[in-house]
Each structure stands twice: as structure tokens, then as C-alpha cells.
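re: ur question from yesterday

yeah so i grabbed the chain u mentioned. its 338 aa long if i counted rite. heres the sequnce exactly as i have it in my notes:
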Amino acid sequence: MNIIENYPLLKLNTFGVDVKAKYFVSINTINELIEIKKNNVFKDLQLLILGGGSNILFTKDFDGLVILNNIKGKEIIDQNHQSVFLKIGAGENWHELVMYCVDNGWGGIENLSLIPGNTGTAPMQNIGAYGVEIKETFVELEALEIASGKIVKFNNSDCEFGYRESVFKNKMKNQYIILNITLELKKNPVLNVNYGDVKAILENQNIKNPSIKDVSNAIIIIRQSKLPDPKKIGNSGSFFKNPIVNLNQLELIKKKYPNVVSYKINEDEFKIAAGWMIERAGWKGKKFNNYGVHEKQALVLVNYGLANGMEIFDLSEKIILDIKDKFGITLQTEVNII
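ran it thru and got these C-alpha cells back, copy pasting raw so excuse formatting
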């Protein structure tokens, strides 16, 4: 374990923003993390835990200690004729985990294929895509409580999952370091293929009884066609959440924008497509020097090469103000702004 000063984070955030950490360390075991916790030299420093760096926008250098959570491992801790209970280290790549499960015929997270980032950050924002959220397979996680150094377990209800939300993004933000998670995966899953694009691709391929692999492949095709590869263009995927409004709010918007794209959650809650609003407001594909809004997906802000984080943040603020002005809705970011 080697603690490094003035460490460049350019390759550790998918936006490709060139910033440095005052101190940096990569940890591979829980014991290494506990050892750092006991080191009084770092007790008063601001702490940042990095996973895959896919849900973060650095607007400046980080004046503290960045810990890269590289705890690996996959272990079947229990199984029966219906389910496999898989414990996964927080440092495992999420998409590689999905492919591992697909290859073994274990269903439940195939709709979450090609989502960037690591496993430990997945429950923090309750990642979701194409009709599925991680909370549906999540059993529990283990986390190190920063204040006490104790390892604490959180079950599904403890995490207080919501739409791209969990207890770790709200009242317990920056209080815990996730070490591992446990998922319940199904040996004979009921596949979720009702999302329009997924169904269309399966029909085009004349697949009438899709397998887990078929669903995963379809979603990979969709994501690759709509979203830029962070290895080629700096981005963090969807920058904004889809806002949730009540029926009265939706009706008011429909009076001005009859073709607004919305999805019913329940009798009085509707999710409005933030990408549709941003595109309707004229932001899709706009480029400002070396950053802008992606040409194929208005939810995605991109760094074309040399932009700094503050430029991208300022762009997001302009979009938020414009959407508020035009639609009366205040967009919220999915991305963690540092």
C-alpha cells in the first residue's frame, strides 16, 4: 500500500477531467482500509472514495485523500433450486459482473448491461435501466463506518432505495465505505423485455423466446447506439435524473407541450423524460469549444478533450435554468459534483 502525493486523477474519472488529489491510495483489502483509518496523519483530511469514476465531475483539485476502492472477489455464499446468492467485492467492474452472471445463466441484472462503474457504487444511486433497478436483486451490503472503523451490514430496506437514490446519497452521505454487496440472482428468471427498444430489437432478430444473453445483447446494442463510449469521449452517462411530477403538474405541461414524453408510475406520479425536455429546449448536440451536449442523447454532457470540470458544470447549470424557465421543472443531477 503506497500513499502518493499530488496524484493525477485524469484516468480515474470517465469525464476525463485533468485534476489532482493531494493524497491518493489504492486499497485491495479491507485490512488495508482499516490500516488507513487508524493512521492519524489522515484523520482530519477530506475523504473521497473512488470506484469506477463514472458518476463524478471534478471541478477542481481534491484537497484531501482519495481512496481507490479496488476490493475484488466473487463468491457464492448460498444457493437453492431457485436462486444464487452472490457476494461481490466493491471494486469489481459492474459490466464484467453482469457478463459473469449472464454467462452462468443467473438472471436479474441483465437489463443493467454496459452501465459504467464499479459494483460498490451501484447501490449508492440504485442504478437502473430498461425497467430494472438494482434494488430488485439486492440483498445486503457490508460497509466500513468511517467514524468508528466498524463494519456494518445494511439490508435492502436499510438502504432506503428510491429513484437513483439511497441512504448513502442522503442522510448517510460520506459516512460509510462500501466493501461488498450481495445479490440474489435467479436460475430461471422472468425476463423484463417490455421496454420498447428492447422488444423491438428482439423482434427484429426474430427472437420469440429470449434468453438472458439475448436480453443483455439487445441492451448493449441500444446503449452503444445512443451513448458515447467514455474511453473515446469523456462523459458520465446520464447527467440528469428524469423528474417526477404529479398529475396536475403534468397536465399543465401538456397544455403547452402536448407531445411531452412521460411514464406513469402510479395514479398521481409521472416520470417525465428529461432528455426530451433538453432536446425540445434546443440543447441536444450543442458544442461549446471542447465540451457540450451529446448529439444522440441530450441527457449526456460530454468532454471532447480538454475541457475542465467547471466548464461542464456551468453548462449543466445553464440547462437547468432553461428547463425551469420553459417547463417549470427543476432538473436534478445524477452526477456527484466535487
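noticed a couple things. The chain has a mean pLDDT of 91. also The chain has four domains: 4-69, 74-186, 196-224, 234-337.
anyway ttyl
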